[in-house]
Write the structure tokens for this entry.
Amino acid sequence: MAVTYNPQTKQFHLRAGKASYVMQLFRSGYLAHIYWGKAVRDVRGERRFSRLDRAFSPNLAPSDRTFSLDTLPQEYPAYGNTDFRAPAYHVQLENGSTVTDLRYKTHHIYKGKPRLNGLPATYVEHEQEAETLEIVLGDALIGLEVTLQYTAYEKWNVITRAARFENKGGERLKLLRALSMSVDFPTADYDWIHLPGAWGRERWIERRPLVTGVQAAESRRGASSHQQNPFIALVAKNADEHQGEVYGFSFVYSGNFLAQVEVDQFHTARVSMGINPFDFTWLLQPGESFQTPEVVMVYSDQGLNGMSQTYHELYRTRLARGAFRDRERPILINNWEATYFDFNEEKLVNIAKTAAELGIELFVLDDGWFGKRDDDRRSLGDWIVNRRKLPNGLDGLAKQVNELGLQFGLWVEPEMVSPNSELYRKHPDWCLHVPNRPRSEGRNQLVLDYSREDVCDYIIETISNVLASAPITYVKWDMNRHMTEIGSAALPPERQRETAHRYMLGLYRVMDEMTSRFPHILFESCSGGGGRFDPGMLYYMPQTWTSDNTDAVSRLKIQYGTSLVYPISAMGAHVSAVPNHQVGRVASLKTRGHVAMSGNFGYELDITKLTETEKQMIKQQVAFYKDVRRLVQFGTFYRLLSPFEGNEAAWMFVSADRSEALVAYFRVLAEANAPLSYLRLKGLDPNQDYEIEGLGVYGGDELMYAGVALPYRSGDFISMMWRLKAVQR
């Protein structure tokens, strides 16, 4: 059994893969956290923490000065009843007070994993894959019930958590804070890892020791954002990529979030994660309920790589969905950096012709094909083909592309509207705004109000008409600004602070409908590149444009950091022109290819202007990637050298049977008279011999324990890529 309850000790024990997660009921129904880590047969709660009379920690019962919620490790802590640490939830009553008291009422254990209403979440294909525990807590005075939802996966060291609030009382309740999870660790002797960044510099790894007080990663931008990612990890001091304990927390949500660790006076650490309470409330009328999104918690005793490999496999096979989940992704050419808005049908067809000659499989038409969209100052929302640019329409262009042997893909940005558009002139209240305030713009556009059902209905039908108008097999779904003036003309005053979350619910509804209507289309999410690279989006769209920054050297850190949580099959990676359009760097076509081939491969440049030598190299890259893409997209990924720690980066992909591997090595800057160096590989069979093309035959044990000598190369921005194949005996 993955989940058990001992009525004598009042203890819940969740067994997930090779990990244990233990809780216990204390006193009159307080749910305490006892243990989370490597699997144990049993653990007694009273042995895990000492009860002491702590000064300035108030007591629930004056007769027992050793029991205080201020020192009890809890599962879903409240505000106002002797615990001064950050609560998991916060509720305001009609009388204005905010003190609540949740106690255990009942619980349910069952096989499988339920869906979360209106929200993305991990899933099971067979009920035997997981067991779910629901613990119902109640505040008898006000009729509030909170159901804590836990699922333990059988195969992986994974526990998922969420919470459902139900108002079973007679008065209105207002949620001020409704996080998805909280865990109290008995010590704060960990490092904290998160993934900060900016546009063009997403998901850089930052690691530092926990300190007393609060450390947080959060977004208040209406999206998970370039600036932060909804992921944090607590890492043992001695842990590195391949050994040591790691606790990962990943939020399956695409909007405002909070991921927080509070280290208290006794050096314990409280980790909490969920919808950001900033500018959030939710009104619960009697009989209404509220569901929080899911947090996926991963334990690893094999370092960061062990954690990452769990997230990769889970998110690739039990978060991503649809026909493309397990299918090899096509090699594409996108016209954006080749033409920007300045194109016509002839130019696009010429790019497609050259792409076909080079073996590329998919042509993608980016921004500028609709309305009067000759720049970024107009026409978003007017999803009508620009016949001046495309006299034969999307259908005519797509058929020409298909005749060349390529699939046809299209860029859309359905969440935005230009003030200079027919849609905005007809429906000025359809954007997020507040009365009597200016409507600030980003990239000359406003955000459509997806909290409104009529707006969502319009987008579903309008974009459906576009996608049905031509043989489209790929869609790049973009979103190029964050939310300001967050308000809705369709909501009453007491619900205005629900707008941002209602927007996400509306967006998820639209995406669910679109992907269901067009299951043959491969959808790729994008938000100015990687500004919404989160698990919530992967539920609907199995890949994401990793960053608008296509510079190969910049991408080393971006893709390395992204791999901490997200599978390689989710990462769009393209070769672009030099000097690079984002940073001006000149890297060789070889290096640009090796970086891009470490994800879902494609090109984003004017291939009609390349030399014959460059075209021949691209042809070779395309052929090579076709041969290794299943290994890259679905193999086991190992990080070998971190670009955050030195002048080099390296990673590798290993097949499930360990008969094949692909290794990529990169050095950023040259060094005069540099020492010899060796690269130790991972994940191979130590008893198997492997042939490395161009280098010879090595034992798997030699490659992993002694390493392979790196050939000397001069120059900046160099790369090497080796393919390993097991030698047949």
Q: What stands out?
A: Residues 284 and 346 are 57 Å apart (CA to CA). The mean pLDDT is 95.
